[in-house]
């Protein structure tokens, strides 16, 4: 039997009313048990845990069943009801909000790593602020503001980059000096700080009160909330959610939402069709002090804001601190977190979570270094509460692959309160409209595959050879693949300590790989890319692809077609290459992290036809990319097949014998043969950093970075890959025709930075604001140093200013070609030249003329 939330937890708490931080190591371990209800009341000082109520009757049918009565589940119910949904049932195994929600620290901050998380936190802040007026339930909302501290230049630069992104979103923030930090928070020791980010709109709330307010609002709109109801499994028939089995009977439903928090994984495994929810529970510690002897005075630097003490987030110290009942609440994230379940499988209910002062000691030391004035503060208690974490520290959201109607919102990585409002809104939109109103791909549960559940990362078949040739590795969708290859004699340690935001130590190594790709031949292992085979007995495979793809797939056997798979809005669900192997057989190659997403998209639109078959063959093929002007020479020596352009034209696929392997299935000895034959042509290995540089200087967009479900081919210059006149009506056609008629309001552009010193200036990454004529015009999506242009290149989208009525206006070539562009890198703007086509040929000609002039001058001397 599965249970969806926490009912009762016994905490072991130290009696430290007469002891200070200074005497912490001399404490006698006096332990007492305290009930969960008592702990909740003391922590929150507001609404106690609700008393048990008589069980309401379980309905036999609902449109949607939500499992989990914490702040995430109640937010989903609240937002679905707001969007007009009826017949909503929220199930909670214990009492509403009696799990992690009850014990979280209550901080709502927008200081998050990626833009979509900042947007969710900003929306949550606004929602929690107005909930009290909407429901009459006090939420404990106080706009305290927060300080994100930087102990070193790298952290300070990262905060400056964050500030640039937040300002684009209209969120107030300021980069400040250490002296200003001392004025805003007198307890903070500033001797080792280089600066900070001040976020005046950040807030603190009472999490159980916010949860209660959301539940009250949802119930007022017809949501039925059932406490003490345990979910046992989700029934699925033919890939569709049909019912939810509980300990009080079965509820037939069309949709199910897994908001079970740390129990989300077990709930997924307990269903008839197993659902992968990659998260794991860890212990999270925070400390509570008694009221300080000297209350903090109101800050003179916070005109017009609450006089409450600011939240302090010390990322380098791995700690945070917020005001709490006249004292402080302080916790942190240790380098060696303690998993809650050490036997490899989760239990259904936490029976005891004990304090661990030895484990908390590094965070306690960091707190005392940051706030030495707390040394004499009296301890109230050390709290140990559960939190769930995901492999990439981003939450899980969206419809699960393979089961229609089964949604997940879990794995909040200790930011559940900050994300719950925005995440609940986006998931409700997703369920209502088929898509959210923002690009949530970085959070989509389909970004993970089965590989992420394995303890060891898989490697390609050429891993051993690469490892022996100096490969430096990166991870992508569970695969290890090479970034670059260190030449013999290079200091590997210095590369591990490479500069974060400036010119990296691998610069010359990647430059040599790029040069070899352009002048000789390189091998790039691309085995991690997603590979599917779609086959049928008649024309079913072709008909399906013609419906899914914007380009025309009815091409002769052997031809390769680059195409997008679009949604009804004309946005990219996939960007792929399709090879027609035979009349009724197609080979589809997509980006690595498209494996689950693309599979789900194709299966969603496949007819129920036993003669139509889709197979994931990613593991069956090793893919070696031979790139460079001598690539054909290498292949010509390995095969009897003619490599001349007449016999092997561009965008063509052909089966051939290479070494000892038949067909296009490569093996390790083929790699060795390729490297052996290629020695005379100067062959070498190249990694993905070189590939990225080549891609960006050629102005090639990449799905997941530049392209997303909101980007259309007309916006990124790929209208030539859309065949409006083909016989089949493809997905997104009507939307593209309408967009072509109305005009495109944003365009994908290439920007080459000018007056930017590669040696001394900060490097662009992605997400930097783009300004045109002094006004915000867009953001970058990817960037790289171009070794050909000898400058940095950024790709991104720009839009003209809104029209007089606040509506988008069509973009014109003049706006791009004649605008004065700048790219903001951590608050410093650099001029840039924008174009709609690659700069390569233009700059190559200019460089050649410059070299000729220098040679002439030298000869003249």
N- to C-terminal distance: 89 Å
Largest sheet: 8 strands, mixed
**Helix content range of the residues, please?**
25-40%
CATH architecture descriptor of the domain at 58-133 and 206-279 and 390-448: 3-Layer(bba) Sandwich
* Quaternary structure state of the chains depicted: single chain
CATH fold category name of the domain at 58-133 and 206-279 and 390-448: FAD/NAD(P)-binding domain
Work out the number of β strands: 37
**Rounded to an integer, what's the Rg over CA atoms?**
29 Å
Arithmetic mean pLDDT = 86
What structural class results from the helix and strand content? alpha+beta
Global morphology: globular
Give the class-level CATH name of the domain at 58-133 and 206-279 and 390-448. Alpha Beta
Low-confidence stretches: 1-54, 300-305, 342-351
Give the CATH superfamily of the domain at 58-133 and 206-279 and 390-448: FAD/NAD(P)-binding domain
Number of helices: 21
Fraction of residues in β-strands: 25-35%
Protein name: Pyruvate dehydrogenase phosphatase regulatory subunit, mitochondrial
Keywords: Pyruvate, Signal
Family: Belongs to the GcvT family.
Domain FAD dependent oxidoreductase: 63-430
